[in-house]
Amino acid sequence: MASINLIEAFQDFKEAENIDRPTMMKVVEDVFKTLLRKKYGADDNFDVIVNAEKGDLEIVRRRTIVEDGAVEDPLAEIAYSEARKIEPDYEVGEELYEEVEILDFGRRAILAAKQTLASRISDLKKNVLVKKYGDRVGEITNAEVYQVWKKEILLLDEEGNELILPKSEQIPQDYFKKGETIRAVVKKVELKNNSPVIILSRTSPSFLAKLLEIEVPEIFDGLIVIKKIVREPGERAKVAVESYDDRIDPVGACVGMKGSRIHGIVRELKNENIDVINWTNNQQLLIQRSLTPAKITSMELDTEKRHVNVFLKPDQVSLAIGRKGVNIKLAQELTDLTIDVFRDNEGEAEEYDIDLDEFSDEIDTWIIDELKRIGCDTARSVLDLTVDELERRTDLERETIEEVKRVVKAEFEKE
């Protein structure tokens, strides 16, 4: 009965953890052979038979029948008179097969076997989990939010395995509630205290790459290849793509008709601006494309020092730099160059400024449009005018103007 209970328990384990039958049988056999070695000193003459179909276990002892007084190895041999007590028809030279009752090992030994089995099954479970997610690193997975903590989120996959989404791997605008299903890429599998920890990410460039692969069939089919992705999660991303088919426009294919393909990705990434550009081995052209949406007038490239000076018209400088300097930072990562921005007409370093459109998440569009109407299209142009002047020249209320000036001023104070 004890043996049957053991096997039934581990059949349940097998179904729950997807452990294959041969592995399960080998584990059970190893555990009981260890038990036999402890009791008899060796397991050579014992067969552990596991019947996974019926869910039972049988231990059989094999011994050769020898003449009385000729027993040299008690583990492998049995005296003729002893054999006849078991079965009168036995003859000298025959093999005697005898079933070993598990209860004969004693309660302590049986309990130890159960604990050892549980430990071995736990190790198998860990190995299965490590292999499953180790093979899926870089792939997107769906999981349900189970617990939200300050520094990380605990998720459960469809099989109930625990996954971790650290705060550092979340987009700043991410907000999740218990029971919500989220998408993330498998970043890595770690071992902590001998237990596997599956780390997910929504900030990794590979997450954006896989989202594009899902939305753009040409990328999935290999007709378009993603050469490089750089991201400032939740703010902006730049994706350099190349087509292996001259008939396919890689940028157009990624963006889709009226942005149909890219819009879903932008929503998933919490309105992250995504610039898709054509990859080229022409460095000057790549620099120009990487600074999108700004347009460069000219540049001075020093390939040895990995440095470039770019010259732009005054109204393009703030676009090139971007809010919080994100645009130029990503351009540098994409081109692997240090980029310095200058006004084209002065040849001097441009004082840091920000295009007013970059504040659209904090300032209503109609307010920005009203400020642009009087020529205030950058942050500094707003700060250069007093509240009284802005109130006189626009249709905005004083409180609104003060709030706008506070928002744009706070951005410069961060720098």
UniProtKB/TrEMBL annotation:
One of its GO terms (cellular component) is cytosol. The keyword Cytoplasm applies. The keyword Calcium does not apply. GO terms for biological process: DNA-templated transcription termination; transcription antitermination. InterPro entries: KH_dom-like_a/b (IPR015946), KH_NusA_2nd (IPR058582), KH_sf_prok-type (IPR009019), NA-bd_OB-fold (IPR012340), NusA_N_sf (IPR036555), S1_domain (IPR003029), TF_NusA (IPR010213), TF_NusA_bacterial (IPR030842). It holds the Pfam family KH_NusA_1st. GO terms for molecular function: DNA-binding transcription factor activity; RNA binding. It comes from the Bacteria. SMART domains: S1 (SM00316). It is found in: Cytoplasm. Residues 136-203 form the S1 motif domain. Participates in both transcription termination and antitermination. Belongs to the NusA family. This is Transcription termination/antitermination protein NusA. It comes from Flavihumibacter petaseus NBRC 106054. The lineage of its organism: Bacteria, Pseudomonadati, Bacteroidota, Chitinophagia, Chitinophagales.
